[in-house]
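Structure request: Squalene/phytoene synthase, Tilletia horrida.
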Amino acid sequence: MTGRRTSAELALKSLSRSSSRHASTSAAAAAAAPGAEPTPYLHNLLQRTDRPSYLLSHSFSQPPHRLAYLAIRSFNAELATIPESVSNDLLGKIRFGWWRDSIRALYASIEHGQAVPVSARGQPVLQALHAVLCDPALRETPTQGLLHSEHHFQALISAREDDLLSASSSHTPPTLEQMERYAERTASRLAYLELDLLGIRDPAMDEVCSHIGKARGLTTALASIPFHAHMMIPTTTTPALTSRARRLILPQEYLLAHRVVEEEVYRKGSHAEGLKDAVFDTATRANDYLISARSALRRAFGHDSSTQTTTARKRRKPPKLLDPVLMGAIPAKVFLEALERVQFDPFHPTLIQEPTGWRLTWALWKASWRGAAKTF
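Returned structure:
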């Protein structure tokens, strides 16, 4: 185990050195310079808001694919931070509306062979998306990559906006169905975009990505419990953050089954009666989706057929091209393992300070070496 940890720490240090070089350009400077290279801004944004996605970006061996992934995940990060950066729903709707119009203008400019729209020139994420959409390396795929994916971007905006509005209008925890639908509309949708950027259009892989997205969406909800309960102190505090209502992001069904009282969670944290049991049930559901993703992947490549020979099955192993998409399941897997180590206590200090630590880096490195299909 010592050797593994050493390898992981070396990999993490390597990534840290890389990130420090990219972080030298501040986010403000990048946003203020219309002609500036957008990649440092994307790196910085993901390092601050979505470290798993930042690490996963290294799994894309081709620079055009890597930039496309960074742009997609940074787009999601920009949307995800809107609720914490506005003081009321109206301002949030205006922000989401701006993104909706900007994506529409971006795709229209590509269709007519025009330069970057004026609204996108000062926004590094939109600049990166425009560069990606114009890149011949991505446009020459059989499905033309992301050129026909505007509906995915628009659907992400709608999902985030709906969540903002429902959070302020409803003061009860979501149902399991609502949580899974939201995961499908966000995390799964991002996985579909990753398939698009690789030029893959396959219903069987859509099913795999749907399961992976739901697993990742549920684990993200579990990881965010301290934040939404106002029991995790953010590095920066804004009026929007301090005025935001507390929320308990766990399925109603599990809270009722284990007699969890929401106010008790806010007062007692992990000592609230039944909380760990509700977290366990949600984690089990997320793990079930990982199992379903593995099963769907085996079916997609014929591994479940008893009539095939061993040689045929070997020929049908998932291609290396799919590894970056399949590796999207690893952050969920590593988080669930970390949650189990602390007896399903979402408020445990190690989860709040560093949910996955070096283990995520090690797991991603192992997947890139052995193949994602064998490790998630």
